[in-house]
User: Fold this.
Amino acid sequence: MKNILIGVSGGIAAYKSANIISMLKKKGYNVKVIMTKNATNIISPLTLETLSRNRVYVDMWDEKPHYEVEHISLSDWADLVLIAPATYNIVGKIANGIADDMLTTVISATEKPTFFALAMNVKMYENPILKENIEKLKKYGYKFIEADEGLLACNYVAKGRLKDEKEIVDEIERFFLYSEIENYSNLLSGKKVLVSSGRTREDIDPVRYVTNNSSGKMGYSLAQAAVDLGADVTLVSGPTELKEPSSLKKFIRVNSAEQMYQEINREFKDTDIFISCAAVADYKPKEYHNEKIKKAEGNLIIEFVRNKDILFEMGQIKEKQFLVGFAAETNDIKENALKKLRKKNLDMIVANSAFNMSSNENAIEIIKKDETSQEFSQKSKQELAYEILKVVANEINNKNKNNK
Ligand code: C5P
Assistant:
């Protein structure tokens, strides 16, 4: 398992580092912690020592005897460095070559991927000096996890709050996943990716609707993975409970299949890759009742009419676009997926069992236009998203080579 070195600097959010360390340990990572002197005023080293099950480092001149040059051995040990929370001060010090304690010395001495999870008062967050420091550090490959908006310790409701701990841990895990992909940073760079995700909702009257149990997890994971691999991503999403992926070019929320069609159709022309992951309702009620339908004697019959098949329509007008469809089936998965691949004029289809629709994991089979296929056993949807995009990038490269 990977080794993660956590740096804790002295913002009030330092107490949240305990949660991050605990989550990482539960996932099986090895964790060591370095704190600044200021951070120890906010949370006790003993807490982080107990959670990380390792000694916590604060002082360069610790009285405990050691035979190693500790700031170098810690950096060698780490696969990744995460500073959470990262204060205005620590960003400023690193950007300006200051290494005056254990944490800043280790960060300055390491070549390992280093993430700063920012947290500070909004006035400091908006200070142009911080922005300049961040831009400078980004040029040297440092990565930043932006702060969220919320109630700050200083009582302002504004940007500056440490990103949700789970989201920080997710971001670190995603980094491990995509950095294993060769040339990951430019795998999809310059590509415009359009993803549809989630379920649609077809209204019957002001209080009732029909929908399905798609969670949107696969589509959101694909959108996020495409961003991580360098693409410009537009996500068109039906209703979901999920948080918007970070750094999208555009995020469009819709309810009905008709609205989804309008948005996809508008975006499609300027798209290189369209991944149709949404579970679009095939039917909608023939009429919408402006008033709530009253209970009456006997049965209620609602007539349904066909919705447009968005992916089929895009298959008809496609030019250069690479089209990826999904087939969630309860039976004869591969046969049904192949029929859709042909009928909808797709470049690729991802076949999977409809029973995995709202779970965090899935097993899939990717079938290409030439009808060769590749199976992927049970994995998280996040991991599968990278696998799918690797195949897509490969196909596009091969297509380009053959066209030359
Ligand atoms: O034909 P079926 O609905 O099973 O095909 C599934 C694929 O078609 C998925 O990629 C889904 O997003 C897409 N689809 C669509 N519009 C519909 C129905 C399905 O784009 N109305």
Notes: The chain has a mean pLDDT of 95. The chain has two domains: 3-178, 184-289+303-403.
